[in-house]
Amino acid sequence: MKIPIFKLNYEDEFIKKYQDGVYDILSTGFVGEGKYVREFEQKFSELTKSDNSVACTSGTDAIELAIRSLNISHGEIIMPSNTFFATAVAVKNCGCDPVLADCCTDDLSLDPREVRRLITEKTKAVIVVHVGGILSSRLSEIKKICDTHNLPLIEDAAHAHGSYSDIGYAGTIGDIGCFSFFPTKVMTTGEGGMVTTNNDSLANVVRSLKNFGRDINDASRCIISQGMNSKINDLTGLLGSLECDRVLDRVQKRNSLLEIYKSNLNSNFKVVTQDGGQCCYYKCIALTENAEAVRDAMRKNNITPTGEVYSNPVHHQNVFLQSGLPNTDWVAKNHVCPPLYPELTTEEVEYICSIMNGV
Ligand SMILES: Cc1ncc(COP(=O)(O)O)c(C=O)c1O
């Protein structure tokens, strides 16, 4: 059996609908941001139960737009080191310094004690990352800390399309949420991002910022702030809209496959799961002390493990080098992410488990 790192199938019906949509778009002679982008945003709001969704060109831009919409242009932003470096890049792009915090080893989420420890008068915001799509039970504590200190909470929900728990839906738990539609994500538009918020004024600022800083209420479309061009086109909007139609089915499939991992892996592994609600399970995160040997065994047996979350955290990156994050270092060494995507069959996941158990 050969199991690739990733596979993505589109049903014939999906392809047909995309072709019809492309015909519709091209017949109008306008491929810019139009009705399909609006449709994508509306469906994404239904998925995330958010009042506003604003499409943009990437998850990284979504984070930058979120920070800038909060009128933050200097100072410190507390964020976990255990994330993809794009989170820190977006913070830097806004003229701010990322203050890297340690994570919890059970669900890989930002540790609230770290947030408390790192808050200073320079702190402007806190970013949480829903690693693997999992909404941590500690989110309410972090939210409380932010409220007490009057700090905005930004969610990097790049992994968490449609995840919810008793605290709410990913992207609506803090003040503003940021999603990515990179090809490996739970839903994809090739490249793309989305900002979600229940705050209408913040959403309008994002709408302006992603459109050069134009005044969205003025027909003359004057520039009212220094924005950027992060608009997407209708071909991307169409793809996103069709992805919204199937994402919940695909999340169900991810959940069933994760259950197989959970029940088949032996006691050398602890699969990280979300308490309550529903997680989209972007990743199967299996904590193990034999990570390197498990990865070797997978490779020898034609299974390509997926990227970890994270074996190369932000504080290991040359431009953000820092020490003193023991839990993040522990996580980096002690987990594997076997393949998890809806195209996998039960037999394939059982096979992956048997190889992992054999180590
Ligand atoms: C946690 C996290 N944040 C941000 C991003 C950036 O998203 P994008 O690649 O769409 O810019 C990614 C992934 O790509 C991510 O995994």
Entry summary:
This protein has helices spanning 12-28, 35-48, 59-69, 86-93, 112-118, 139-148, 200-209, 234-264, 291-300, 326-333, 346-357, and strands spanning 52-56, 76-80, 97-101, 123-129, 153-156, 164-165, 168-169, 176-180, 193-197, 270-271, 286-287, 335-336. With 359 residues, it is α/β, with parallel strands linked by helices.
The name of the CATH architecture of the largest domain is 3-Layer(aba) Sandwich
Overall pLDDT score: 97
Overall SS class: alpha/beta
Number of helices: 11
Q: Estimate the strand proportion.
A: 5-15%
**CATH H-level superfamily title of the largest domain:** Type I PLP-dependent aspartate aminotransferase-like (Major domain)
Highest-level CATH class of the largest domain: Alpha Beta
Radius of gyration: 20 Å
* Termini separation: 18 Å
Helix content: 25-40%
What characterizes the major β-sheet? 7 strands, mixed
Description:
This protein has 359 residues and is an alpha/beta fold. The mean pLDDT is 97. Strand 4, helix 6 (139-148) and strand 5 form a beta-alpha-beta unit. The longest helix has 31 residues, at 234-264. The chain is globular, with a radius of gyration of 20 Å. A seven-stranded mixed beta sheet has the order 1-9-8-5-4-2-3, with helices on both faces. Strands 10-11-12 form a three-stranded antiparallel beta sheet. The protein starts with 11 loop residues before the first helix and ends with a helix. It has two domains: 12-240, Aspartate Aminotransferase, domain 2, CATH 3.40.640.10; 247-357, Aspartate Aminotransferase, domain 1 (Alpha-Beta Complex). Helices cover 38% and strands 13% of the residues. The chain is built from eleven helices and twelve strands. Helix 3 (59-69) packs parallel to helix 4 (86-93), helix 3 (59-69) packs across helix 7 and helix 8 crosses helix 11. The site of pyridoxal-5'-phosphate has 14 residues, from helix 3 and helix 4.
